[in-house]
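User: What would this chain look like folded?
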Amino acid sequence: MPTNRTVFHKWSNLAGTMIKAHLSLHKEARGAVELSEKIGVALGQRPADILITNGRILDVFSGKVREDAVAVAGSRIVGLGDRSAKTVIDAAGSYVIPGFIDPHVHIESSMLCVTEFARAVVPRGTTTVVADPHEIANVLGTEGIRYMLRSSRHQPLSVYFTLPSCVPATSMETSGATIRAQDLAPFFNDRWVLGLGEMMNFPGVLAGDATVLEKIRAARHHGRRVEGHAPGLTGRQLDAYCAAGITSDHECTTAQEAREKLEKGMFVMVREGTGAKNIEDLLDVVRPENSGRLMWCTDDRHPHDIVDLGHVDAIVRKAIGLGVDVVTAVRMGTINPAVYFGLRDLGAVAPGYRADLLLVDDLHDLQVRTVVRGGVVAACDGQMVEGIDPPAPTPIAPSMNVRAGSLDFSMVAAGRRVRVIEVVPGQILTRQGIYEAPRCGGSVISAPSRDLLKIGVVERHFSTGNVGKGLVRGFGLRKGALASSVAHDSHNIIVVGVSDTDMRAACETVAAMGGGLAVACDGAAVATLPLPVAGLMAYEPVHTVRKAMDGLLKAAHGMGCVLEDPFMTLSFLALPVIPELKLTDRGLVDVAAFAHVPLFVD
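Assistant: Here's the prediction, encoded as structure tokens.
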């Protein structure tokens, strides 16, 4: 029988003296337990640190659920079955599943610094992420990568990284930095770096661009994965992309596209973020015979989705609700990404694996009640446990350089018809439309009655004064303007609006905050969210950021915006590697042609 038995009843808040004693015990146990001691615990010769009893284990290897106890020593699972233990957690019939793993996420897109991101997602069951710090690297270069690595230390979340492969993403925009293969090389020696991040410059791969191939070779030389980003790529071009050693893709938007990539040996990450939701379109691809090469990922997920819906848990829950087998859905969020990245001690409830464990009442509803991370109870009932304190957010220098009073969004009417960026709701890709130019005298203006609005991209890294200008359709604004310094991938300031005056006011507000989001109307800001960390992230908790986002969305919707999350949509309209038509600080980009094109077609 267990000794010194302390029973944590189902969904206990683990408060008071019991949790203090538990945390004190496991503060020592967090360190590496000697191998001989682990063997002794596994054999029953020593008491386990924690024993989770009366649970039903979901075995991701066999696909079966069985009743058994889970013994933990230090940060590891050392055995299954009843034995003596210092502390006992009574699961009272709940399911024990592995902690969730997000294999592709941009933490910056949560608009939370690493500390607050960890506070937000750990209670939802995410215990490991593989983050691509591509966003901050486009602002701060290698210092941005170092900043994210520093910020991720000692978190109640395992944060691994892939290195940004495309900084800048293209030569058709002004980025805050340029990162070459030799700049990345030292980072591959870091144990927390698992690969080269999404290779979105697929034209460069296909053309055999020396600088692109050098980065791929460096990753492969160090035995690391090379992540893909190849929306719509097919046939021989896809063959060539795969032949370069690129092994995954998270940009599939159709079942046919996903099937071809699977058939050609790629792993497919099914994305369900805020701006791009692909799970329903790819549902038919999820089959027992290929599910081992499929994973879920969030990519870019805003605070309100994390708070209201969840993180990886929300994807698994949605998949199950849409008919995906429970075991398959859980595997795609646990063991599959662990195997893909070679994280051999993650993703399963089995001896030798890290004790990243979730207790859930119902496998179909999948509400995470208790989170054990590395052998320590980290969260219960959606809240971090008292005493589990992530490190204070790491400060960073300002990075916003825009000349006050220099912004001009006027456009001369130099033709009759114009190219227009057409928003596709729920997707980050756009369409290219040709429309009669909305005019007033000799100038192009917004025409809210036709849902044709001005859009601009203001360079903010070097104060060059560059302002890219165009037109967009799909926002539905009747007045005012929206602006953001979150504008993939170079993160210049992007703005859409009805009047030049409001567009200027929104942009100047963003610049004055050191980065962030703003809604302006009648020449003044009416809602804001400061993002002082590289113009991308806040130091505040997720609920504070979410409240500010709610204010921004309410203001935008009050001005007629028809998009559920216009700021997520706006953030991708400057990304010239996602089809079809985008805008950078240097002008309109036809992504298929991979070249700048004029606003006017005749």
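The longest helix spans residues 542-558. If you want, I can go into more detail on any region.
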